């Protein structure tokens, strides 16, 4: 009996397989939320209803960003609606950029370093440390710094000056 060995399928299963058309996706916007409903087939070839809910927010953006948003789409996305297409655009997480150099910040940091250099100034050697911590404190450097060096003056007397020996005032 070959007829009994055959497995008969239900007419409802055949109708479901024959109706291969999917309903069109719908978008409903209300109360600051956008609900997108679409239908697709999963791995087991069964119809699946996918509902995506988006919260609509308004942001103030720079003019250059607003101009870029109005650019015409190209390539495979030329026929898409304005805004990102969730099927081709994947946003994983916010990425914060670190700029390698910023001229304004460099100038501010240079000015800050210059002001810090002038905070500590030694009275003895004019170095960038406090006078208490001066390595020349109590040495001959301190005494030599205080005396100005006189300019060379022409000698009125004809007697040569001998260096290194004491000359009493009466002999001068």
Summarize, please.
With 172 residues, the protein is of the alpha+beta class.
How is this structure best described in words?
Among the domains are: about 60 residues, no CATH class; about 35 residues, no CATH class. The radius of gyration is 45 Å and the shape is rod-shaped. The protein is α+β, with helices and mostly antiparallel strands and about 170 residues long. It contains five helices and three strands. Strand 1 and strand 2 form a beta hairpin. Helices cover about 25% and strands about 15% of the residues.
- Run of helices and strands: HHEEEHHH
Let me know the largest β-sheet: 3 strands, antiparallel
User: What is the radius of gyration?
Assistant: 45 Å
Mean pLDDT: 77
The secondary-structure class comes to: alpha+beta
Number of helix segments?
5
Shape: rod-shaped
Number of strands: 3
Strand content: 5-15%
Poorly predicted regions are none
User: How helical, in percent, are the residues?
Assistant: 10-25%
First-residue to last-residue Cα separation? 153 Å
- Name the strands of the widest sheet in spatial order: 1-2-3
Keywords: Initiation factor, Protein biosynthesis
Domain Eukaryotic translation initiation factor 3 subunit G N-terminal: 27-139
GO molecular function: translation initiation factor activity
Region (Disordered): 1-28, 143-172
């Amino acid at each position: 009996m070959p007829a009994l060995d055959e497995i008969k399928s239900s007419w409802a299963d055949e109708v479901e397989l024959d109706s291969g058309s999917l309903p069109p996706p719908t978008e409903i916007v209300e109360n600051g939320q956008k609900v997108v409903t679409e239908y697709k087939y999963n791995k087991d070839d069964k119809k699946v209803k996918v509902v995506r809910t988006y919260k609509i927010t308004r942001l103030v953006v720079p003019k250059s960003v607003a101009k870029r948003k109005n650019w015409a789409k190209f390539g495979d996305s030329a026929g898409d609606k304005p805004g990102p297409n969730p099927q081709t655009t994947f946003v994983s997480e916010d990425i914060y950029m670190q700029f390698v150099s910023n001229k304004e910040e460099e100038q501010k940091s240079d000015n800050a370093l210059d002001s810090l250099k002038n905070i500590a100034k030694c009275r003895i050697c004019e170095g960038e440390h406090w006078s208490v911590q001066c390595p020349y404190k109590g040495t001959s450097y301190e005494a030599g710094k205080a005396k100005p060096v006189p300019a060379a003056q022409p000698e009125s007397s004809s007697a040569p000056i001998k260096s290194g020996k004491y000359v009493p005032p009466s002999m001068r």
